Amino acid sequence: MKKLTEVRCTAIQVRIPMFAASKNGSKNLSEVSTQWGCATITGILNKCHRDLLDVLFYSNEFSFVRVNGQGVGCMIQIYKLARLLGADRPSLTDAKRVKRMIEELRVARLEIKTKSGDGYNIITTGIVAKHQYRIDADGKEGKLYGIIFTPEYIALCDNGIKLNWTPAEVQILVRMNSTAATVARFMRSHRSTRIVRYGIETVLEAIGINRDDMSARGYRKRVRQIKNGLDDFRKLGLNIEGKNVIAEPVARQSGTNYLTERNQYHYERNQ
């Protein structure tokens, strides 16, 4: 087994909203489409699952190894993972919740179509291939819990623009409300050496929240959730001005914790 230095989320995973901007469940079958591609999701994937993956990938608490023929695996302590996901004093209930989310990641299936020239690249993948407690030499369950990610999902993490978060930034995302955190992830995928500005309505549509699909009151609540996250947005290099969400520019330099891609898309302003 070869030890890996890092596994990262890629921009396409947040530009195509595979993880619903909610904390309590999601549809068992959903389809999303944006200018970057589309995805069909079978299973339950929401903000809590994205938090779990980001904590695993960015916290520096866990080591990953390439498992021959089976993708990439890591060994974790369930209670430590629960603590990093916001449980102050993790209980058995918290541990069961974490294992339930990992099982939901195992069951979920993604069919992702990304634009490539005049056609599409199509990726069909699960996220987790297998998970269980490590069995000690005496045949009993140990304290360590093993997770093996599918080769296809790891390939999705290896290819494309990678998002870089510090452990402290991941903890900010974990505690943010689901709408604000999903918007923050989307905007950070566009962070560049120039200011990037999108209208709030444009961003909400990009993460799968359409004004026409909900009541006026429900939509105003989503907008309010974004604006209430202003302090956390600023800690993540983002800002809110009027009806716009802004990704502040970052200097192009080696070793930066931020995405330094040259932004290729038109900026939209909804004043």
Number of helices: 10
The SSE string, one letter per element, is: EHEEHEEHHEEEEHHHEHHHEE
Which overall shape is indicated by the principal axes computed on the Cα atoms?
globular
- The low-confidence parts are 254-271
Oligomeric state, counting identical vs distinct chains: single chain
What's the helical proportion of residues? 25-40%
Radius of gyration: 19 Å
Major sheet details: 5 strands, antiparallel
> What portion of residues belong to β-strands?
25-35%
| E-strand count | 12
What class do helices, strands and sheet pairing give?
alpha+beta
CA(first)-CA(last) distance: 54 Å
Number of domains: 2
Characterization of this structure:
- It contains ten helices and twelve strands.
- Strands 1-4-5-9-8 form a five-stranded antiparallel β-sheet. A four-stranded antiparallel β-sheet has the order 2-3-6-7. Strands 10-12-11 form a three-stranded antiparallel β-sheet.
- By secondary structure, it is an alpha+beta fold.
- It is globular, with a radius of gyration of 19 Å.
